[in-house]
Write a structure and sequence with these properties.
Elements: E1 14-19, E2 30-32, H1 34-38, H2 40-48, H3 59-73, E3 78-82, E4 101-103, H4 105-114, E5 118-123, H5 131-140, E6 145-148, H6 150-153, H7 163-172, E7 175-179, H8 200-204, E8 209-212, H9 226-235, E9 239-242, H10 253-259, H11 263-266, E10 269-270, H12 285-288, H13 298-307, H14 318-322
Parallel strand pairs: 1-3, 3-5, 5-6, 6-7, 7-8, 8-9, 9-10
Antiparallel strand pairs: 2-4
Helix pairs in contact: 5-7
Bound molecules: zinc ion (ZN).
Residues 17, 19, 244, 274 line the site of zinc ion.
């Protein structure tokens, strides 16, 4: 497993939230459903990012090459790359036909072998029959953060049937990241599962919980869960939030609002980009200038924008402590 080694006094730069996609040439690695491959957003992203120019024989190989190139060239020290588990039926069996976006845990564990900067963020749908065994397996393989996509995977975090999973994650020191706020990039089972108040149950087991996106929704959504995120942060010391996707055009005001929150909130905000979703540059042009040098690398551009806001001093680095990857400073 990677263990952070940093010069004293220097704060490591960590991105807590990035994705890799598989097109589906080898479905065991991962896939996008035919509907997702046809979606305008998917096609727009592929075109905007000129994926055809990357190295590799297949789209999946090109996507992986670009991720590795950007991670390697980035000023970031560590990047969490997230897997994406399937949808499961109520009886715990896998439902591939209802799954529109899948990336296997082995795929991100393998990526972490290819770059010392990549930290694997596996994904486990707690509905699956072997959820506990998979949690133990990925932890054994070095994973210290597991993502649950409430909206896409159809997981209501408030169900008592997940207590054993939450308890085991807390015992193993595995951070649980939940998607919060309305989801727009993929087919959704229920937006209601993304309300941060539903995280009370995993939080009660005492482990570290990250509310990805801090409950924020897009400017056009009928409601926002940001106020309930703030309430939950006040109630639970073991709750954190990340800033993934907040530099996009449809949520750009959320960075201003979040950075003006009280320090008991901002001190538990973690840097996350949601790469490869690109940050919008226009709303932040007064902060970054018209042609910032970071614009050629989405990871660095997103970091540049977010570092221009005032979050806690541990904004880019405390995830390593939460994942147990950095020993606490010695006294004296
Ligand atoms: Zn994401």
């Amino acid at each position: 497993m990677n263990t952070a080694a940093q010069t004293p006094g220097e704060q490591p730069l960590v991105d807590a939230h990035t994705h890799v996609f598989c097109w589906g040439e080898n479905p065991r690695d991962g896939f996008l459903s035919a509907r997702t491959r046809r979606a305008w957003l998917t096609r727009l992203l592929l075109r905007l990012t000129a994926i055809q120019k990357e190295e590799g024989a297949t789209i999946s190989e090109k996507l992986r090459s670009r991720l590795l190139r950007h991670v390697h060239q980035s000023e970031l020290d560590y990047v969490v790359v997230l897997a994406q588990d399937s949808v499961y039926r109520d009886d715990g069996t896998r439902d591939d036909l209802a799954t529109h976006f899948y990336v296997s845990n082995d795929y991100v564990l393998d990526l972490a072998q290819r770059s010392t900067k990549i930290l694997p963020g596996c994904s486990i749908n707690p509905i699956r029959r072997d959820a506990l065994a998979e949690l133990e397996r990925v932890c054994e393989a070095g994973c210290r953060l597991v993502k649950i996509h409430t909206a896409i995977q159809g997981v209501d975090p408030a169900l008592s049937r997940f207590d054993g999973f939450y308890r085991r994650a807390a015992d193993l020191g595995v951070v649980l990241m939940f998607h919060t706020g309305y989801e727009h990039s993929c087919t959704v089972r229920s937006q209601k599962f993304t309300d941060p108040t539903r995280l009370a149950r995993p939080l009660e087991h005492g482990g570290v919980v990250i509310a990805a996106h801090c409950g924020t929704c897009a400017l056009f959504d009928p409601e926002t869960y940001y106020p309930t995120f703030v309430q939950m942060m006040r109630r639970h010391d073991n709750l954190y939030g990340d800033t993934a996707i907040m530099a996009s055009l449809i949520r750009w005001t959320s960075l201003w609002r979040l950075s003006r929150a009280e320090t008991d909130i901002t001190s538990r905000i973690l840097h996350g980009s949601d790469y490869p979703f690109p940050p919008a540059r226009l709303p932040f042009v007064l902060r970054t200038g018209l042609f910032p040098p970071e614009r050629h690398n989405g990871l660095d551009m997103d970091l540049r924008i977010k570092q221009s806001f005032r979050f806690g001093s541990a904004y880019t680095c405390q995830l390593l402590d939460l994942m147990g990857l950095r020993s606490p400073p010695r006294d004296g």
